[in-house]
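Table S2 (text version). Query chain:
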Amino acid sequence: MSKLTSRSATVVISIISVFAALDVAFGAIPGWWISWAAIIKPLHGIMLGPIAGPYAAIIGGLIGNFIWPQTAVLSVFTWVPGVLGALAAGLLIKSEKYPLWIIVATMYIVLIGAFFFHPVGNTVALWALYDKVIALALVFPTAKLVKKLRNNGVLNFKWLAPTLGLISFIGTEMDDIVGNIIFMFFGLYNVFGIPTKDLPFIYMSGALIMPAQRLLIALLATAVAVPLFKVFEKSKIIKWPLT
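Corresponding structure-token output:
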């Protein structure tokens, strides 16, 4: 982030606070399998960038987990996946000038490998990872699209929706795989009283539902992000992403 004046620092803090508050508010909406606060996570990265975005996700996630403990599906770690999802989205939106997409691809490779080689994760890898592999394959094409977003500094609206849609999908899938890693490596299935023999059935039953939900979340996030980008681009009030 470039050096901030006291006024610009106040603006950044205020916007982070607004997005964190939205995170908390969406966490109150009942959801099935996942919290609807997941819609906000890719928006943190897309609108705020790879620095301010994760900050907003941390603040919103921690407060939301405290206020709505019934949504804390990963116990005290529930806020963590959204932070990594926001980071991935932020890194991709900033890949216009820097090859930050490589960091996102590396994160995916490491997390997919860790889950696959986990002794319990390996038993459900087929159903848990196929959509994450798809997301990994989309990282580089998405980075190429990001480069088309601006032409001589002017936002190219033609590529806006597909680019933000792919970034949202990759961000939400990053959120999901981090959640799966935490679930496996911290043995939360034991904490929640789920026998390991039941895990294949659980993952199999969610093999289509979970990716469909992630896709829906990406579409909803895109529906919000596109008009926001257009409004702020035309108004020249704030440069997006914020950091």
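Notes on Table S2: The chain has one domain: 6-235. The first helix runs from residue 6 to 27.
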